[in-house]
Design a protein that fits this description.
Blueprint (H helix, E strand, L loop, with lengths): L2 H11 L12 H14 L5 H11 L5 H13 L4 H44 L3 H31 L3 H16 L4 H20 L1
C-alpha cells in the first residue's frame, strides 16, 4: 500500500478532521442546500453540518462553527443567514440568492400542503402522536449537533472558550436568565478573549 493510499484511507476514516477540498459552483450550491432543506425536520442545523463538513467537505469544523456563531449573533433565522453569507462568500450575489432559494422554497411549498392536511386531519390522535415523536427526534438532533460543534473546543483544549460555553449554558439553560442579558454580558468577554488569543 502506497503512502497516498494510506493518507486517503485515513482521510476517509476521519472526514471531520480533513481540511475542506472544494468550492461549490452555483449548481452544487443549489443542490447542497436543497438536500439540507428536504432532509431536515425540526432544525436543519445537524443536516447542514453533516452535509457541508462531513460529506461535501466545503468547510472545516472550525469554519462551520465560526460562521454559524456569527449567524446566531445576527438577526433573522440562523440557517437562512448562513445560506446568505456562505453563498455570497463562495459565489457572490448569485450564490447568496441560489443558496437561500434552495433553502426556503421547498419548505414553503411543503408546509402549505402539510398545513392544508393538518387543518383537515389534525384532530386525529395518530397525527398528534406522530408530531410528538417528530418533536422528540428534532430535539435529539439538536443536542447531537451541539455536542459535535463543541467537540473542537474540547479537542483543542481552548479553556477560555470552554469556560464561556459553560457560563452561557448555566446562565441561559439552567438559571433561565433572559438571553438578551446573557448575550450582553458575555459578548464583550468573548470578543476580548478572541482578541487576546490572536494578538
Amino acid at each position: 500500500m502506497s503512502d497516498d493510499d494510506v493518507s486517503r484511507s485515513a482521510a476517509a476514516a476521519t472526514p471531520l478532521l480533513v481540511p475542506p477540498t472544494a468550492t461549490p459552483d452555483i449548481g452544487a450550491l443549489f443542490l447542497g442546500f436543497l438536500k439540507v432543506t428536504v432532509s431536515g425536520f425540526g432544525s436543519v442545523l445537524p443536516w447542514a453540518r453533516r452535509e457541508f463538513v462531513s460529506v461535501r467537505r466545503w468547510m472545516s469544523q472550525d469554519e462551520f462553527n465560526e460562521l454559524f456563531s456569527l449567524c446566531q449573533f445576527l438577526p433573522g433565522p440562523n440557517i437562512v443567514t448562513f445560506a446568505l453569507i456562505y453563498g455570497y462568500r463562495v459565489r457572490g450575489v448569485a450564490g447568496a440568492a441560489v443558496a437561500t432559494a434552495a433553502l426556503l422554497v421547498p419548505p414553503v411549498l411543503l408546509m402549505m400542503c402539510v398545513g392544508a392536511l393538518f387543518d383537515r386531519y389534525g384532530e386525529l390522535s395518530a397525527v398528534r402522536d406522530g408530531l410528538t415523536g417528530l418533536a422528540a427526534a428534532a430535539a435529539g438532533l439538536l443536542v447531537s449537533s451541539a455536542v459535535q460543534m463543541a467537540e473542537p473546543l474540547f479537542r483543542g483544549r481552548r479553556l477560555p472558550a470552554i469556560m464561556l460555553w459553560g457560563a452561557t449554558f448555566v446562565a441561559a439553560g439552567i438559571l433561565q436568565w433572559p438571553l438578551l442579558w446573557v448575550i450582553a454580558a458575555l459578548v464583550p468577554v468573548s470578543i476580548a478573549v478572541a482578541w487576546k488569543s490572536v494578538s
